[in-house]
Amino acid sequence: MVRRKAFYRVLVFASLIILVIALIFLFVYFRGRKEVPAPEVVELTLSSEAFDDGGNIPIKYTCDGEDISPPLSWGDPPKGIVSFVLIVEDPDAPMGVFTHWVIFNIPANLRELPEGVPKEGEVEGIGVQGKNDFNKLGYGGPCPPRGPAHRYVFKLYALDTTLSLEPGVSKTQVLRAMEGHVLGYGELTGKYGRS
After folding, report:
1. What is the β-pairing status of strands 42-43 and 182-192?
2. For the segment 19-70, what is each residue's pLDDT rounded down to a tens digit?
3. How far apart are alpha carbons 192 and 141 in whole angstroms?
4. pTM score of the predicted model
5. In what order do the strands lie in the sheet with 98-107?
6. Together in a domain, 53 and 87
7. Any idea what the CATH number is for the domain that residue 61 is in?
8. Same domain (yes/no): 141, 121
9. One domain for residues 98 and 120
10. What is the pLDDT of residues 108-161, one digit of tens each?
């Protein structure tokens, strides 16, 4: 009985010593590590002369009209930018988020996209276009089912690189390639409904 108590005391004492050594090791290890700060994402101002943020998208830019992309403009980006990416999504689509436009490698010196960007893979001086969820290149305008208006979110990203991707890629491929390269972000939301 006495031996058993002595054995347990030694076991508890040894466990405490191991625990203290482990805590000292962890303290020294984490104290010596330097945190690498994540790059700060600068807010970009994205706007359109065709509609206000939160306003209605004119029929001209929808499947019920000419189905052309609206004019967009933005302010000065952060330093170190190499290109922009623009993604347009409908978060209110019945089957989940629906992608209406993916365009990347927009030159860093551009501050606007004109109305009616051609629906081609590469548009000289403007960028490279991926496929939308209509399975087509370029912009596909709002085309919601009848009912309440849907929101269409235009998302602009400023990157510190260009993306080595071919025309016709998916939004998922673009987002994956962008990881770790976003320096700035801005968005513009428009609404469109069919009653």
Report:
1. parallel
2. 777 777 666 655 544 443 445 788 999 999 999 999 999 999 999 999 999 9
3. 10
4. 0.80
5. 42-43, 182-192, 150-159, 83-90, 98-107, 127-129, 122-123
6. yes
7. 3.90.280.10
8. yes
9. yes
10. 999 999 999 999 999 999 999 999 999 999 999 999 999 999 999 999 999 999
